[in-house]
Amino acid sequence: MYETYTFQYVLQRMLDRIPQDLDRREGSIIHDALAPAAAELAQLYIQLDVQRNLVFADTASGDYLSRRVAEFGVQRKAATRARWEAAMLGTGEVPTEVPIGSRFGSEGLVYVAARRIEAGRYELECETPGNAGNQPPGPLLPLSYIEGLVTVELLELLVPGEATEDDEALRRRYYAAVNEPAYGGNVADYKQKVEAMDGVGAVKVIPVWNGGGTVKCVLIAADWSAPSAALLDQVKQALDPEEGSGQGLGIAPIGHQVTVEGVAAVTLDVTTTLTLGDGMTTGQVQEPVEQAIGDYLLRLRESWAEASHVIVRIALLEAAILGVPGVIDVTGTTLGGSPDNLPLGAHEVPVLGEVSL
Fold first, then answer.
1. Distance from the CA of 157 to the CA of which of 58, 199, 235, 312 falls in 20 to 30 A?
2. Cα–Cα–Cα angle for 249, 254, 257, rounded to 5 degrees
């Protein structure tokens, strides 16, 4: 809107208002007196353009976007902490009890014992919000002495930690809330409320799947993996507690019996033949190729909720591999021994298995 209001444009407009019989050339008193004012006005127009963009949801960012969407009841999702199941073992791998609040460290992260699950099994919560706590399972070290404790092991990621919602994700939720009104337990209502829950990445809602009043919600976790049983139970309790199902004791309306399931992870073994550049070996490209394939499969998992089913395509997989430095050509790519594209079920997502080059 203000793109034409440059320094030169504003200055020329000001000079055009000066009588013709006065000296307006560069270096004249009038020119040099008007130039600083024209520069400030040009900066003002730049700021006006920026402020105009911050008013509308499609161009706003940061706090301005948060404030804009909040007018419609949409709140930016704050960062959440990862929650793990961990084993506490003593001598001879005997289950050991530890005090709630005990702290354990690994790779610069600290985990706190938040809840006892059973003998020698505890739920730990990462002190650092965000997805940093979604590290691979492994050993932890106690930060203070605990009598009888020998080893601590992270076993299963119960609820993935999430980073603060970015602008584009918030904008998509805002458009969904405005364009797909959520009301009284319709599909949009379930979708918006479930996806706002901690640990949930996306959901498919299947109404009347087993007769009138039945609803099925199929989830994928916030780290785009198959959700844990603990996360599924957390969502189930929030929607429609098992005790008193259909009585409206959760978010679901009275009369709705909700089933909560997770996506099924399908492990894909990839075999391919590469032509490499001079001096390159398969060992040098093994990890980058695995990363490229993993990124492609991640994009498929991220789009799972918007598609009827996911198809792993050989051509796109090879295109991802060709983007690896040092790879000149790719041939003979197979998925699980088959050279064909792999269509998955409606509730299946692909994860990377073994990559053979």
1. 312
2. 85
Q: Are residues 350 and 271 in the same domain?
A: yes
The 10s digit of each residue's pLDDT in 214-256 is 999 999 999 999 999 999 999 999 999 999 999 999 999 999 9
Residues 250 and 271 in one domain: no
**195 belongs to a structural domain:** yes
Residue that the structure tokens 């009038």 belong to:
30
Question: Six-digit token pair at 200?
Answer: 């949930």
Q: Do the domain assignments include residue 2?
A: no
Pairing of strands 257-262, 214-221: parallel
Q: What is the DSSP letter of 332?
A: E
> Quick one: which of 275, 261, 263, 292 has its CA closest to 355?
292
Global pTM?
0.78
Instruction: Indicate the helix (H) or strand (E) that contains 233.
Output: helix 229-239
At a CB cut-off of 8 Å and minimum separation 6, what does 110 contact? 103, 104, 126, 127, 128, 143
The answer to whether residues 96 and 153 belong to one domain is yes
Residue 284 is given by DSSP the state H
Are the beta carbons of 295 and 344 closer than 8 angstroms? no
The domain of 48 spans 7-55
Residues 66 and 173 occupy one common structural domain: yes
Q: Residue 325's pLDDT is what?
A: 94
